[in-house]
Amino acid sequence: MVIRISNLTKVYRRGAVPALDDVTLTIPHGTFGLLGPNGAGKTTLIKILSTQMDASSGNVTMDEFDLVKDRTEIRRRLGYLPQHFGTYPQLTAWEFLDYMAVLGGMHNRSSRLNRVEQALNEVGLYEARNRRSGTFSGGMMRRLGIAQTILTDPEFLIVDEPTVGLDPEERIRFRGILGRLSSDRAILISTHIVGDISSTCEDLAVLDTGRLIFRGSPGELISKADGKTWEVQVDDAGFEMLSRVFRVVTVNVEGDLMRLRMVGDGEPPADAEAVAPNLEDAYVYFVGGDTTGEIAA
Question: Is the pTM of this model over 0.70?
Answer without folding.
Answer: yes
